[in-house]
């Protein structure tokens, strides 16, 4: 697949792609020789959906773009039918390109560049195993939402359970629980009643003792009277 550009278009492409290299998260260099147009379009669409781009480039233009780049290993990749897959994040383009190459052996992964660091083929393959930005976001959302659902369910379950408990208790004839003040008042009243009862008992005991004392005194008086009478009778005789 040949790319025909006019001189002005080439200059603009060189300028634009230099900016892309400065902002790209990852750039994967591939060989696409043997891919059908339909396959190339399919790959381009998949990378676009992942937030990246797939671009067939001319090596002569890439040499101009990479003129000031000191990475010789990266420059050496631009030989033959080269196409680039790149994305702003460090994973998406590599993941789509590598997965596509597994089903289409005409697409060869050569290496790449990430944050100005050269990536060998194996590096790109390993990066492709990492979760993409969308997958990370989905996992984060799942982590955030799942506990919220559990909490909401637990709260709803507890509320329903409490409602059932209260409803069952309302059917029972349970005397109202006395307040602390009422309980203390009753306790005080009971104590006072016991005190009064004790006082009354003591009063009765004292009264009984006094009665017994009087009885003893009377008995003693009678005894003295008897003794006096006996003494008088003895004198008369």
What does this structure look like?
With 237 residues, the protein is α+β, with helices and mostly antiparallel strands. It has a domain at 7-130: Alpha-Beta Plaits (2-Layer Sandwich). It contains eight helices and five strands. The protein has helices at 7-23, 37-49, 59-65, 72-75, 92-103, 121-127, 133-171, 180-236; strands spanning 26-31, 52-56, 82-87, 108-114, 117-120. Strands 2-3-1-4-5 form a five-stranded antiparallel sheet. A hairpin with a 2-residue loop joins strand 4 (108-114) and strand 5 (117-120). Helix 1 packs across helix 3 (59-65). The longest helix has 57 residues, at 180-236. It is rod-shaped and about 165 Å long. The mean pLDDT is 78.
